[in-house]
């Protein structure tokens, strides 16, 4: 049964590129996907968080706030945060950065907004060197579908803890598939003051604030 689930979920290796069209914050966003890599596909959590940020601007006003997205993937959430007025730093592993930079650049250029930044961030590695605490403080940490069957969950949790200083809000949207997802959620709840903001039953996505 698990094998069948994984086969349905894992993108097939293919050089095929696709362009997906979305509309958030009054703008059409065109995202180039590549199903060669997990990080180059728009996952359900990104759609859920983008929709929530657009619909709840009074609760989470991103205007002129410093926002860090970890595991930014295709960049959809970072683009939406830019459109909502944030200073955005979108991060991911090196092999995803080219597509991420392309999507962010094409959807934010020539617009009256803070210019977003794209940077390499491997969870748990070189945090003090690349993002020293004395220089970098973020109002919001955004993460979508960063928890699934992979070996870097402890490093991901350490990265969340590193960037969440007093006053920082972590918004994490994730499709819950496996027991490891719920185990990670339990660890987050043990460390952070955590609340469930929304649930999307049709896609098994939960959106949490910590």
TrEMBL record:
Gene3D superfamilies: Vaccinia Virus protein VP39. GO terms for biological process: methylation. Keywords: Methyltransferase, S-adenosyl-L-methionine, Transferase. One of its GO terms (molecular function) is methyltransferase activity. The keyword Transferase applies. PANTHER family: HEPATOCELLULAR CARCINOMA-ASSOCIATED ANTIGEN, PROTEIN-LYSINE METHYLTRANSFERASE METTL21C. This is Protein-lysine methyltransferase METTL21C. It comes from Chlamydotis macqueenii. The lineage of its organism: Eukaryota, Metazoa, Chordata, Craniata, Vertebrata.
């Amino acid at each position: 049964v698990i094998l069948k689930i994984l086969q349905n979920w894992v993108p097939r290796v293919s050089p095929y590129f696709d362009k997906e069209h979305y509309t958030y914050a009054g703008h059409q966003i065109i995202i180039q996907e590549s199903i060669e890599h997990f990080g180059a596909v728009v996952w359900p959590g990104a759609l859920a968080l983008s929709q929530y940020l657009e619909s709840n601007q009074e609760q989470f006003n991103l205007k002129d706030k410093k926002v860090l997205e970890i595991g930014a993937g295709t960049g959809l959430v970072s683009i939406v945060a830019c459109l909502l007025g944030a200073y955005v730093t979108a991060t991911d592993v090196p092999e995803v950065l080219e597509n991420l930079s392309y999507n962010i650049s094409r959807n934010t250029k020539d617009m009256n907004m803070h210019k977003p930044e794209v940077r390499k961030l491997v969870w748990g590695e070189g945090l003090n060197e690349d993002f020293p605490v004395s220089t970098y403080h973020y109002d919001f940490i955004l993460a979508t579908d960063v928890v699934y069957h992979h070996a870097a969950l402890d490093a991901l949790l350490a990265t969340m803890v590193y960037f969440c200083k007093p006053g920082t809000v972590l918004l994490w949207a994730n499709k819950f598939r496996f027991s490891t997802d719920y185990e990670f959620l339990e660890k987050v709840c043990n460390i952070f003051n955590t609340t469930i903001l929304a649930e999307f039953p049709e896609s098994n996505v939960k959106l949490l604030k910590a």
